[in-house]
Write a structure and sequence with these properties.
- It is built from 7 helices and 4 strands.
- It has one domain.
- Strands 1-2 form a two-stranded antiparallel ribbon. A two-stranded antiparallel sheet has the order 3-4.
- Helix 2 packs antiparallel against helix 6 and helix 6 runs antiparallel to helix 7.
- The protein is mainly α.
């Protein structure tokens, strides 16, 4: 039975060789860049969670040598290529990867900055103190005039004016039963409006808080991503330049040494997209919220005004009785 050789890579974190392929009759380590276009990409942008292909080492990726796509590991380990030339190839490959990564990073961060700036202009829905004052006064007046069976009225009616007003309101509501319904409906409308204002304020504050948190996260992530890449790039480059003379005895560098970390460009893009989605939903909801708050205030003021108008009307009539 034919047994294929095992494939090892050097894990820098564990400081040891790690087997990445088991022995079997059907074993085939195919890293042909022409068959797998993904291998033509940048190893420093490799993300094992989103990559369409499992990669074990930086040497599985391809590089361009004299307009030819060749596997990085095959080129630097080819004894037929002079040492000086292989050194130039390594330097050029890492320079190309660095340039490619910085271009991708700059594009992503630039778009992220634009998104943050634009979304920062999205105005947060606010309720003025006048709006809140009108709601509060309308609610208190409506409750006071329509809830004449409350404990407050029991004490207030003991006074001369209180007794007069209590009798007047009792006659008014008994003669116009529909007016009591208007009072009850107005109380519930104003109560709902107050709750609506509280919830809308919470939504606006939550949006603003999430925006600021995301803005801070993007700012910190940008620095972490840049710092992480420089460290990974510098260590990987040094690894191959130092080992070049005895490259045949040095194992391939594991992909984990160069791949993106937990905070990466893809995560940066996703955070930007989340921010866009939240801003879009918030902006789409604002016209409905504004219209709804106007309707609630109008109904509340109309109901309160109706009760007040009839109250004054009854007071004027009582002067001529």
């Amino acid at each position: 039975m034919k047994t294929e050789p095992k494939y090892y890579v050097f894990d820098k974190d564990r400081k040891e060789l790690v087997e990445v392929a088991s022995e079997n009759d059907n074993y085939q380590m195919n890293n042909d860049a022409n068959k797998y276009p993904f291998l033509k990409t940048n190893p420093f942008l490799y993300n094992p969670e989103t990559a369409p292909l499992v990669v074990y080492s930086i040497e599985d990726f391809s590089i361009t040598v004299k307009k030819r796509e060749l596997v990085f590991g095959d080129v630097i380990r080819d004894p037929n290529i002079p040492l000086a030339k292989r050194k130039r190839i390594i330097k050029k490959a890492f320079k190309t990867w660095k340039k490619s990564y910085n271009k991708e990073k700059k594009l992503t961060f630039s778009e992220g900055d634009k998104i943050v700036d634009v979304l920062g202009e999205v105005s947060v829905l606010k309720f003025s103190w006048k709006y809140k004052l009108i709601l509060g006064l309308s609610f208190c007046l409506t409750v006071l005039l329509s809830r004449i069976e409350s404990l407050l009225w029991e004490k207030f009616s003991l006074t001369g004016f209180g007794n007069y007003l209590h009798q007047l309101l009792s006659q008014m509501f008994s003669g116009r039963s529909w007016l009591r319904g208007v009072g009850n409906l107005t109380v519930y409308t104003l109560l709902f409006a107050i709750l609506f204002v509280l919830i809308a304020n919470m939504i606006s504050k939550e949006y603003l808080r999430n925006y600021r948190l995301t803005e801070t996260f993007l700012s910190v992530s940008e620095k972490n991503i840049d710092r992480s890449f420089k460290k990974r790039w510098r260590q990987a480059r040094k690894y191959y330049l130092r080992a070049l003379k005895n490259i045949r005895k040095v194992p391939p560098l594991a992909i984990g040494a160069v791949q993106e970390g937990q905070v990466n460009i893809q995560l940066f893009r996703e955070a930007c997209q989340v921010l866009i989605d939240r801003a879009y939903k918030y902006k789409k909801a604002k016209p409905f919220i504004s219209a709804f708050k106007f309707v609630l205030l109008s109904l509340g003021v109309l109901g309160t005004g109706t009760i007040l108008a009839f109250t004054f009307y009854e007071m004027i009539l009582s002067l001529f009785r």
